[in-house]
Each structure stands twice: as structure tokens, then as C-alpha cells.
Amino acid sequence: MLLHILNRSPASSRVPLDTLRAMGDNDWLLLIEDGVYGAVGPLADEFTSIQGRVFALKEDLVSRGLENRHDATIELVDMDGFVALTEQATQTVSWY
Amino acid sequence: MSDTTDNSMLVVLRHAPHGSSWLREGLDVALVGAALGKKVHLLFLGDGVLALATGQQHGPLGQKGTHPTLDMLEMYDIDMILVDGKALTQRGLTADDLQLPVSLIDDATLPEIFARHSSIYNF
Amino acid sequence: MNYALLVQGAPYSQQAAHSALRFAHALIARGHTLGTIFFYHDGVYNASRLATPPQDEPHLVEAWRRLHEDHGTSLLVCIAAALRRGIIDEREARRHGKAGYAVESPFELTGLGQLLDVHSNHDRLVTFSP
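Output (C-alpha cells, whole complex):
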């Protein structure tokens, strides 16, 4: 399982599309930095094809005032949770 | 792709030439890997496919560009050059428009390529 | 596990370096080792000892140095990426006849090949890019 780390919003970049194309059926996606804009609906719909495998970094939502506005299908993790995801993945791939 | 082994490195190039240094600095990682004796596979993805378009030139200030580097890949034994077929089509290009012979990759194959390499550098 | 980070964003321009620092502290807090941070692309600006942020902002260069002092983390800076951006150490300054320098220990200018070694001799490499 690969952990893909994405810091681009689907509203401003095509990078999220390439990230999704590269993801295998068991891979996970973590949204960080400006990537967390994609955790808020309706932009979150971009990730419906990988529902249940999408995480967003809580502190980046909080600093952007979005903590309570993220889509319910996306799981929030703190920095400790971010590290835990990298432990479970065999490798991480960062998209920017 | 039968010679694809787990310990070969995958360098993914996603940026077009001239607009930023990502393409050049990504290629540098590939060349260094090859110089150190590692088996290097290149994947041109998204805008990265524009790196292969023929007819590129130096910039007006003498910026080198990356097209001369691509001509050196063979010398470095980098012969696995994978290209995102969809990105190529989106940009009005075909394999005939590219400066090197490449292997076109479809969407179904992309995740496999990422899964089978144990060290991935995404530029 | 032994972690390495690849940092490719300049501090104070993009969030990448700040995210990397947060991740560094979190992985150490979970009991892992942070063996190496490799600075590449605009990440080399993280190595400038001349950085002088306002006192009420995080001082990233100091924070990297403290990781080295407290946890033994190697701070490696790609020499090719650094030199062309003016991020040189005393030795390179002398060699090129420059009056000042930006990089000092514990940051080390090193070849790009080191990045590949770092990738193969650490359990995880996590990249933070602008």
C-alpha cells in the first residue's frame, strides 16, 4: 500500500486528477496544506471513487477555518496520525 | 516490462521544460542514479510529456533547457521511458512528435507502475 | 523506524518546510528516529544561516539546527541546487572568491547521490514540496 500525499486543491490544479490516476485500489490519500480544500464539499466529490481511503490533516483544516466543514467521508488525522499512516504504507509519494 | 525489478528506481517527471527547474532537477536525480549503477525508469506524466516534444531550443538568455539531457539518456543506460498516453493526447501530441522512442502507458497500467517500484521520486 | 525527509520548499515562501518540521517533531514524539533531512530544489534556502525572520515567527533554520543537536539528524544540502541559488559554505566561498557565506555546520553541502543513499538506508523517505 502506498500513501499518496497531496497538497493541491482540485479547484486550482489538475495534479489531484493525476494523483487519482496513479493510485492503486488499496492505496491511501492524505490531503495536506492547500490540499485540504479538497476535503470540503462539493470539491470533496472529486474523491468519491476512493471513498474510505481519504484522510485530511486536521491542523491544516483548522488553520484555514475549515475544521467543521469537511466532508463526512474524509477522515481527519493529526500529525501523529500522519506519521502513523506513513508507518503503515510501504512508501509515500508526494504530489505537488 | 519484464525486466522491471523491485530495486529499480522510478523517477516521475510531471513538469514542462523552461517554466521551472523541476524537470531539470528531476532528471538530475535520474542521471545520478544511473551514474551510481542503479536501474532507472522514467515516467513522463501530465505536463511532463511536454519535455519530450521535438523542436525545443535554448532560452533567450542561454538557459540550457532539458532537451540535450534527454539525448544523453541512452548513454546512461536509461532505456525504460514510459509516457502517459492520455496526457499526450490531451496536448495534441502523438509518439511521432517526441524526440525519443518511448513506451506509451494507459490509465490501467499507471497504478501498477507505482506499485512495483520500491523507490519513487516524484518531480 | 529510521525516517528521512526530503524538503524542497523555501521557508517563508511556501508551507512545505513548515509541514516538514511539524512532521519531524511528530515522528520523533512517536519514538522513531529522524536520521536525515535532505534539502533540494528551493529547499536549500532552509540552510541559510543569514535568515533573519521577525521574532514572532518560527525560526526554521534554528529549528533544523536544534534537530541536529538534540537528535543527531544529518542536515544534507544538495550542492548543485545550493550553489546556483547562492547558498554556499565557507569553503565554496573561498573557492569562488566570494566575501560571505550562508551555510555552516551542522548543515553539509553534499552531492545529489547522497539522496539515493539516504533513500536506501532509511526505512521511510517522506517528501515535502512547495
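The first helix of chain A runs from residue 15 to 22.
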